[in-house]
Amino acid sequence: MKRMNRARIVVLTVAICAGGIAAYLASGSDSAPPPAAPVAQLPTTDVLVAKNDIGLGQTVKPEDVQWQTWPTATASAAFIRRSERPDGATQVTGSIARAPFIQGEPIRDQKLVKADGSGFMAAILPSGMRAISTEISPETGAGGFILPNDRVDVLLTRRLKNPDQTAGAQDIVTSEVILVNVRVLAIDQAPKEKDGQNAVVGKTVTLELNSAQTQLLSSSRQAGTLSLALRSIADVKMSEITLDESAQKRDGVSIIRYGIPTQAAKAR
């Protein structure tokens, strides 16, 4: 009988101890975690961005732009900041996009122009430049693979009478580059690429030229056939073409710098 009582006491003692340990562990798990270390807040500013894609030549509407929080350290001086221009959204409304904006891209004045009632083409032309059109065909327009905003060379091909009067003498065909690295403004009346197409077969191309280049192109159209040679995108910043001396001496070609031709002498 005494042994049974002792066994019960031992079991009861073990149970009480286990319950106490469980209660202690439970109270510890309910305690709040230590507070997280404070995160440093970067200074920010509100920048005007494109709410939707804005295409080339599109007029900016109020619903096309919005203010967006931007880290001050990465906000360029060219961005429109609310702290400096609180009426920025109103100021750009009605402007024409000289270059496309993608959604979320900061609005910059350099890519906008105020039309002030003028047409799109007159609005996007840089100061001192002209838009002049000339006829092309798939054969003279790089097979239709020239798109607006591409860069091209303009070649003049002429057929001259052979001074040799003997029977069977063939006419002389000459070709020369008259304009180098000029920008295509439009194909027919399309000033921008449509639906991601990579070829436009048109009958008329509009080029961006200065005054001297305009006169040269106008006179060349009456002298022969004009062709366009598509340039690599890597040549966009190229402003003049240089030819090696051996080619100049061999062919007596015309060197075109900024649209002004100079004749290289033929080797004697």
UniProtKB/TrEMBL annotation:
The keyword Glycoprotein belongs to this UniProt entry's keyword annotation: no
Source organism, top-level taxon: Bacteria
SMART domains: SAF
Keyword flag Secreted: no
SAF domain residues: 45-113
Sorted UniProt keywords: Signal
Signal peptide range: 1-32
InterPro entries in alphabetical order: Pilus_assmbl_Flp-typ_CpaB, RcpC_dom, SAF
Protein name per Swiss-Prot or TrEMBL: Flp pilus assembly protein CpaB
